[in-house]
Design brief:
Mean pLDDT: 91
Oligomer: single chain
Distance between the termini: 55 Å
Radius of gyration: 19 Å
Length: 262
Amino acid sequence: MSRSDAVALDRLGDLVKAGDYEQAEAGARALAAAPRRLRRRNPLTVWHARALATAAAVAHGRGAEVLTELEALIGELESAVGVDPGLPLVVRGNRVVVLIHQRRYAEAEAEANAILRAATRIAHLTEVWRIELSTLDDLADAMCGQGRYAEAEAIARGNLPRAVGGTAAALQCQLVRSLTGQGRHEEALTEARRHRSIWVREKSGVLDMAIATALHGLGRRSEAESAARRALTDCERFLHPAHPRIHEARELAVRTAGEDLA
């Protein structure tokens, strides 16, 4: 991979981390489509660029749109030579997120566990702790989707001490959600107040939805309604209109307001 391509990929990766999904995806697709003879690059650049483009689309909420592309890319990477062994796992992790968005929780759980096993096998070849923590966050999400809140809590609590940045914020959200799911609403609100002040666009609305559910469970209706409305506002502002969380936030806003769904 040329130095210029490596620099471009790093810049696009920074855009994804910053939540600028639209620009990141557009730039990654342009890089992947650039004629090889002009850029003098090997296929690694194309694979990395496609991985970034699909990651940005999934984070934005367009996972269903790129699921076929993700699966094709996974197939290519797993038979490719010279690829960073962590890259296929990253792409598979993005597929797990899509499965969760589609409420295919059992499939998501199985794939997340497979990724964790694969990460253990390549730990001597490349750094895998970020992949592991991201996958554990997804695993907790899949368990919450199946109502297995105690297991999700154990994952979140067990891995928060070693998490940093956006992954720590994501795991904290999972902890609040898992406590709420168990009816431990006061504990959930206490954990929510400890939430690290790190903004992660991909997680827009998640924490406020958990807070709204906890407040509603405690009978604090007006506060619950306000939290649900905040969640909906953030979802509509920062996520793609096709993101399933927007619909979930709308349902929650209606429920906390004590209204009947139309």
